Amino acid sequence: MAKKRSFRLFIQCCYTALTNGYIYGFKEGTIYKGAAKNICLPGLNCYSCPGALGSCPIGSLQAVLGSPSFKIACYVFGFLLLFGSLFGRFVCGWLCPFGLIQDLVYKIPLFKKYKRKNLPGHKYLKYLKYVFLLIFVILLPSIITDITGTGKPWYCEYICPSGTISGGIPLIIANDGLRSAIGFRFAWKVLLLLVILLCNLFFYRPFCKYLCPLGATYSCFNKFSLYRYTVDDSKCNKCGKCQKVCKMDIKVWEKTNDMECIRCGDCKRECPQGAISCVSIRKQVKGNELDNRR
Predict the structure, then answer these.
(1) Cβ(126)–Cβ(209) below 8 Å
(2) Which residues pair with 235 in a beta bridge?
(3) What stretches in the chain show pLDDT beneath 70?
(4) Burial class (CB in 10 A: 0-12, 13-18, 19+), 117
(5) Residues 212, 214, 219, 221: what is their CA dihedral angle, to the nearest 10 degrees?
(6) Residue 280: what pLDDT?
(7) To 10 degrees, the CA torsion angle through 188, 16, 91, 56?
């Protein structure tokens, strides 16, 4: 089981290295601006990261909604719809660079680990990410504009810790000119990043649970995405081992494909009855054919 968990970590590391492979940018403190930068990547991959070869869908969505002509680019919405309907929050568990950072921080063994039952207000706090999606990603860039009619990427500028750790900090370290321009906004974002990482030492992925608008978007597709989990009620004895091993603390046998599930696969591997399985496209088509024959 440990080897299978390491496989997910290996995929996360490879994907992050592949999509942030512009080494020259880290060396010179510059941002890659080639044609590939017009393409969205499924995870929270900051546009301002010196090594980023693509764009973050949340940043792209804010840019579209904040454009002076208010032209809605169907590409961004289509991209989110495509990856959401195919994978749901699988993207969060396997393809998000900041998800990888949180996983690595959580692995630091010096601190006791807690689950959501130890955090007061979890059942309300988990809806914060939808509030951030609505207000900071959609409404503010669309409504508050400058003299040219252009809206700001509010979430990127004032909240996103992924942009701070993968974009802001590396750029400032390598670029003398940017260091001289450090102000309150950067200090605030560094403070917010440190608070999130500090919480991450004790709680698994607090950013994903409470603050990530991309996770909020993908979570809306979890129950009907083509890649999802299913529980065989004839095998499940509700022993609770799936919840015990689940770092998102989900009662899998009650809430299969819960909106918080990031498809890490720990519950599936831990189930002694083999009651949890993945629903593939092939299985869905085969099941529909059997239903039609009946």
Answers:
(1) yes
(2) none
(3) 1-4, 69-73, 117-118, 280-294
(4) exposed
(5) 170
(6) 61
(7) 50
pLDDT in tens, 173-215: 998 888 887 889 999 999 999 999 999 999 999 999 999 999 9
CA atoms in the 13 A half-sphere facing the CB of 269 = 13
| Euclidean distance between CA atoms 184 and 174, whole angstroms | 20
User: Per-residue pLDDT tens for 162-179?
Assistant: 999 999 999 999 988 888
How many residues are given for the chain?
294
φ/ψ of residue 55, rounded to 5: -115, 155
Tokens 């990043």: give the residue: 193
Phi, psi of 40 (to 5 degrees): -80, 145
CA distance 71 to 207: 31
- In which residue are the tokens 């591997």 written? 269
3-class secondary structure, 55: strand
Residue 166, amino acid: S
Tokens of 288: 């529909």
Amino acid identity of residue 182, one-letter, is: I
Q: Taking the CB of residue 42, how many other CB atoms lie within 10 A of it?
A: 25
At 195, is the secondary structure helix, strand, or coil?
A: helix
* CB distance 51 to 165 below 8 Å: no
Q: Are 150 and 143 in contact (CB under 8 A)?
A: no
Angle at which helix 2-19 crosses helix 97-106, to 10 degrees, equals 140
Compute the chain's Rg from CA coordinates. 20
Of 274, 283, 162, 289, give the one whose Cα is nearest residue 215: 162
CB burial of residue 23 (10 Å; 0-12, 13-18, 19+): exposed
Cβ-based burial of 13 (10 A; exposed 0-12, middle 13-18, buried ≥19): middle
Q: State the CB neighbour count (10 A cutoff) for residue 127.
A: 10
Report the amino acid identity of residue 175. Answer: N
